[in-house]
Amino acid sequence: MAIYLYIVRHGEAEPVLADDASRELTNHGRHEAQKTAIWLKKQVTEFDLVLASPFVRAQQTKDEIAEHINFKEQLVSEAIIPSGDAAAVADEILARIDNLDQVDADILCVSHMPLVSYLIGELAGYTPIMATAGVAKIKVDLTKWRGQLETLIAPEQML
C-alpha cells in the first residue's frame, strides 16, 4: 500500500494587493509552476485527488500542473488558504484519503505559505520553509494518520 501526498506551494505571485486572494502568478511564477508540473509528471501518471486553495495564484499553479498530469477528482477547499489551520487541513486531507478506499493513491494539495510548512509539520514532524512552486512528497501511513517526508524540492533543483 502506497499513498503519497504532494504538497505544492504556488509559484511566484504579484506583490501584495488590497485583495490577497486575487494575486496572480508572475511570468516567473508560471515558469516555476511549469517546472514543477514536469517534475511531478516524472513522479506520477495521474492524481487521484487534487485539493487546492481558491486563491487565484494557487488555481493558476494547479492549472499549469493539470496541463501535464490528469486529475481524477479536484476540489477547491476554503480551508487551504495562507491563514488556514494546519491541523484541521491535515485532518481533512487524511479523511479524504481514507474515504478514497484505495490501497494506492497520489494526492496533490496546492496552497500557500505559511500553511504548507505547517501542514508538512503536522503530517511529518518537520516544518520547512517552502520555495515558491516547491514540492514536499509525503508517504502517508493511514494506520497512524501521519506521514514521512520523502522529498522536499524547489524548482531550481528540478531536472
TrEMBL record:
Pfam family of the protein (one): His_Phos_1
Xref: InterPro entries: His_Pase_superF_clade-1, His_PPase_superfam, Mito_Ser/Thr_phosphatase, SixA
Gene Ontology cellular-component terms listed: cytoplasm
Keywords attached to this entry: Hydrolase
SUPFAM superfamilies: Phosphoglycerate mutase-like
MF GO annotations: protein histidine phosphatase activity
Record's keyword annotation contains Acyltransferase: no
Superkingdom to which the source organism belongs: Bacteria
Protein name: Phosphohistidine phosphatase SixA
Source organism (scientific name): Psychrosphaera ytuae
